[in-house]
Amino acid sequence: GNPAVPRAMPRRSDGPVRGPRPSEKELRQLLVRGISVSYLETSFKKEVELRFQNTDVNYYAVNEAMLHGPNSKGHGKICPRDGLEGCSYIDAVRIEAAASRRPDPTGPATLMLSWTWGSTVRAVVGAIVRYCEIHRLDKAQTFIWQCALCNNQFLVEDAKAAGEQVPFEDFQKKFRLPIEQTRRVLALFGPWEQPELLSRSWCLYEAHIAEEYTDVPVKYEVAVLPEEEDGLWSALKAGGMQPLLDAFNQVDIQKARASNPDDRRHILRSIDPNLDPGTTAPSKRCQDLEVKIVKRMRDAFCRIIEKLFDEKMGVGAELPYKLLDNVAWVLSTPEGDYWTEAARKVYKFGTEDRGEVQDPDFVCLVLQYRFFLHTTAKTEDENREEMDRLLRMELRHMLCAVRHTSSACEVGRAARSQRSDAADQRRVCQLLFGAGHRAVQGHPEGRFWRCLEPPR
């Protein structure tokens, strides 16, 4: 007989509506709900571990095994958004909590996560938990909007099986609403020196949406994977932040990737309506947006470095002078009074009076701090007292070097040669003669002082 013709899988949308349709207001509230960090850290991770025996699995695998289909938490449950069978992970969590009369671990989203599905559960949850620890947030009251868990993956997979795509406008709405609700985007930077999200269309588009809201600004923040913090700190010790700066310089919205090519085209057209997505000609609008996005990301990355520094300083961690110099330099790169004060705090901590210090990195830190004060002073005398304190420190270091060299004159000449400005040279000499002469009493090389005399 004729071979059997395989029957097409029944469409979810063809099934009966078994629940009430929400009002527009109720639907909006459902679309902007987030799941608590406490729940992600405990229950969600346990579910993943039970399914995969570990949490080093990415969200593509989690989606296939846990977010849609017969083995998912939402299977057989009525979606409160459209009344059809099969709901999102977050809606299933709410339904189960209500059925068992447990506290609801969901609530109005307070953070919108910008991330990539190729990240592992361990990395994503770990970064969010660490972010809460650094910012001292209550994990039970911090609710994350994460597209994989908060969008209904039954709907997405149903459209895919039928050879269709969820309309871009629907996705656009679902991403805009949480940003409007939270006014805070948390970007997952992993790996920190070459963040994957810098090359992904949707992640850059989320930064674009955040940039659009000027009436009530959207805060853009960064989370670093916990296992990468040591690498980041080591790079700061060595001054190796260049890889990240290079990655920022390479951001190109027109070359960014998306899993669905149609999404990429829609995103480009929403940024620049006159742009042909197939062209290689640069778009002025895209380039202008790239500058704004990179500034936001750079400032956000500086903020996480500041928080890490505060945390380490608070527990009395060892902070080498070279590390302090590099942290202060990184924090001084963004514009604005906030960052000026943040860098000043690090410099001041690093140059506290610790007696005689022979570490050459300390001298570099002092010199950099003096240069920083000079360039940030709004008036000639604004930072004079602090600069005088640093000059005395330089003097003390030079005198320490004098005691360990056979030629004090050479040290004196070297010190004077660093002062290219005549007025600055005179100021150095005033400080030296006024405050330093007792430190070299009995030293045979009295000519040291004559080498520092100001030019006639």
Describe what this molecule looks like in 3D.
- With 456 residues, this protein is mainly α.
- The chain has 20 helices and six strands.
- It has a six-stranded mixed beta sheet, with helices on both faces.
- Helix 9 (201-212) packs parallel to helix 12 and helix 15 (337-350) runs antiparallel to helix 16 (360-376).
- The longest helix is centred in the middle third of the chain and has 31 residues, at 284-314.
The percentage helix is: 40-55%
Order of helices and strands: HEHHHEEHEHHHEHEHHHHHHHHHHH
Based on secondary structure, the structural category is: mainly alpha
The span between the termini is: 114 Å
Q: What integer is the average pLDDT?
A: 83
Uncertain parts: 1-9, 405-411, 431-456
Number of helices: 20
Whole-number radius of gyration? 29 Å
Percent strand: 5-15%
